[in-house]
Structures
1.
Amino acid sequence: MAIVAIVGRPNVGKSTLFNRISRSSRALVDDLPGVTRDRNYAPAAWDDKNFTLVDTGGFISGDESVFDRHTRDQIEYALQEADILLFVADAKTGLHPEDPVLFDMLRRTSKPVFFAVNKIDGAEQKRYLDEFYAMGVEKLYPISSAHGYGLGDLLSDIAELVPESEGFAEAEEEDEVSEIRVSILGRPNVGKSTLVNRILGEPRVIVSPVPGTTRDAVDTAFERGGRKFLLVDTAGIRRKGKTREKLEKISIIKALQTIEKSHVCVILLDASEAVADQDLHIAGYIRERFRACIVGVNKWDTLEADPKAMKNFIEDTRYRFRFMPYAPILPFSALGGKGVGKLMPAVTEVFEQFNRRVTTGVLNRALREALGTHEPPVVRGRRLKFFYATQAGVRPPMFVIFCNYPDSIHFSYERFLVNQFRESFGLDKTPIRLVFRGRQREERKG
């Protein structure tokens, strides 16, 4: 699909426009300038044309701070990969000295450029456009990204340059089946962005030793080994008591929303630090939502000189994460690259189990074998009876078991059945859901 990149100074409404066009809330929006630092991608459609929309950080030419230099780098990457450029200016502040500098950059790319003047809420405010014509722009688009004014004309003209493509809804449905969605989660400054860049082999997201650099969840689609992946780098999740700033709280909410949309979550630990309670809180979020998980131990090279420390760290990690015994533990160094090559094959293996189906005959044979190994307990003076089982869903595998007293099954016997199914079906690296039902009763989640 064609790529349309939104560019402009900080706080001109780029992210609000991104969210409105893509009909999502993927980009963070706040009154604080500079909220968006990385590129942010989303599918969009207009006039039966499909395209990929890219939100970029605010352009500042003269400031030499670390973040602004990185942000300019990200803008330049977006300009290189985009097919169409959408420049956004702010009508309320008027023509800014930075606007001509950035607009000249866009013109030098020889790519189609659309010039939108934002924060115009109606025809009576078009008088704000006059000074922008001084830049030599043939056509200006007065718009309001907050209220939608003028977007129809702008998007119709953009759509004329977008090539025909297949139906948008069909493409989304296909992606849901064929694309493995992987989120990278963890506390701030454990190396999430470094890991994303190492996997992709390019500076996809900003990397900095300053905690909290990544604020948005940033999606990147790629292929490896014949499989499609969508990799999401998320904002670091701190303890609730340390999330006083409104913007950081929003970042955490979006990270948790990312878990909901993911197939496989990679929770990243720092080998130079002990496993923290917050690492376990993040894992708890993942477990509660029945997502597949890999525990990645980053900065493993810091322990290489001490084999005993390496062994102790793995043992301690396995013990602390004992409530997720199915989550593989994978050590590596994102900065140096050692061991990172094992991550995506592990993701693929975990996803295949997460997405596995078991035939009804094989499932019920395993159930009968489990019942023969460990006879069901007595409930209400009568023996608990299991009649049959069926698989009700995948991602994760969910099995419905019909029995006479579904509300009286002890968690220990449920755990026994889960372990038996793991062994019988080769599901040792995925969460499993059991649902117990009476023949005419409501289900109970196991």
Note: The mean pLDDT is 80.
2.
Amino acid sequence: MATDNGFEVGEIATTGFKLSRNFLGVSLYEIIQTAYTMASATNKKKYLAIFRGAKLCVIEKKVTDTTLVIEGGSNLIDASTSESIENMINQVVIYNSNDKIVRTLKNSSAIQLYGVMQDYLQQQEGVDSTTEAQKLLDDNGMEQKITIDNLGNIANVTGGTVVVREPYTGLYGLFYIDSDVHTWKNGIYLNKLVINFKNMMDEKEVGSLLNKTGVKTT
């Protein structure tokens, strides 16, 4: 599929998940993310589509043997954090096929602090709507953006992990790399990394389902 769109293909994570879906009028990125989002719902792993050089790769986001320790007084230069509620969801209303409310899940403490930030779900056959709604609440709380500057290492790339130890800022533990910048300044190799406590992926669900005869359904 990627080669048909003119991309070289590199490492592609295997999942064992079979997808039967018709994709029309959607981007290659959305198709890839839909396939891996549905696989992730089954195997609980997280995936990232990324270019390495000219090659399109899909990797599993996990701890590897290239995970480095970055700590104050050694290779950590600076660290800063910021918080945002821009994408917060603290209440999810579930409707049935007749547009009747069947259940409402909420994060009461977040509502008390920030007001109601609501999303909606419609029940679908074969889908646990309560679990899906709880996942929306869990994945869309307060966003914390953590940026660190450190002595550079080529292993520090998006989709990878680092261990940070900085008692003054309270950063301590395993973090996932959301973005990376590699630069040389005055002859010193540096990284600027945006890191996250959570292992997140850009979840998508596009396309039409196919029934057992191969005919698409809505």
Note: The longest strand covers residues 171-185.
3.
Amino acid sequence: MLHKGLFILLSIVLFTSLLGSIIADNNNNHITLLPDKSLLRTFLENQYVPEVGLLRAGVSVYSENITIYVANDNVLAARALEVLGSPLASKVLTVLNNNFSGGWNGKIDILLGKDIPDMFYNMRHKFIAEINGYRIIYEIPDLSTPINDWYNYADLVVYRALDRLLWGSRPYAEKLFINLTKLWDGYGFYDNAVKGRENETGKIIYDVYKLALFVYLYRALEYTGSDIIYDYEHIYEKCLEIISMAQDKEKGGIHTDYEVINGEIVITGDMNTETTSIVVLAIYSDYPMVISSNDC
């Protein structure tokens, strides 16, 4: 029979562990399960390739499992590792700073509080090198192919809204937030990228990282004192729910995609560094607060 004192001690430990994975809203009306931080850190650290000093993109899907992206992956992962308290953060940052001038690409930079250009472009892959079987790729904008209908892409709407917040324009950011909610179909963000895949595959495949971006923008606006976000708290809660479902229970990474089958969320896709890093930054970092600090 388990000793009563030991039982109480184990119960306290279990409760404390669970407490680290829940949040409550400002009115303490509910709690929401969140991705496990220790597992997120374990996954990202396991993606690290020592001979390169950077993280690989995927786990099992070829060729993502042998590809290392300077940006978006490692620019985001370096900060995510820092948020999670990993000593690998400084190593990755050193490689980025010494070899790639920081690794910026004018798009995801805004997630780290860095201003981005007013025009979005399609991205192209610049091959850098191959080291011990790993391809190093730098994803940079193709200046010959601007994206004029950026407002039909959920991720780009978030980036633009955050950039406006960085410049102190909450009203415009709120307008874009409202437009973003119009892309929500009850299960995910049904934007032009999702529609394109649907046309090719015949089924809707949603992106997990766009859920995290919504959470990021929601938090950033919340720090400014915006009231409009609370009308869409149901979307925020659903995003967190699906993100938590998308975390691999063994390896800890966040799977990239999901489908809806008979009204149920079914997680698909490989785990990858980029999606996992965005989740960390959106949920656990102070970057949303930093971006919103210029609100006026």
Note: The chain has one domain: 8-292.
